[in-house]
Amino acid sequence: MRKPTLLQRIRRFYGIDEPDRDGWADSAEYRRRLRWVQFGWVVAGLVILALGHNAAAIGIGLFMTFLSFAVLEKS
Length: 75
Prior knowledge:
The chain has 3 helices and no strands. The chain is mostly helical. The chain has a domain of 52 residues. It is elongated.
């Protein structure tokens, strides 16, 4: 029998259930959304390089992080 991983031992210690795997990350819709997010990050990176301001880089980075989570969320 295999020894449980660290994450499995922590989940067992705190009584956290294993996450349900419903296949969302394997679907064509998820891959399409992932391509959009990747393209958005590339464009955001180019905009950050063009602007060259630290505040703009932080703002765009935070916005893109939010947008990435929002787009990739199953709905």
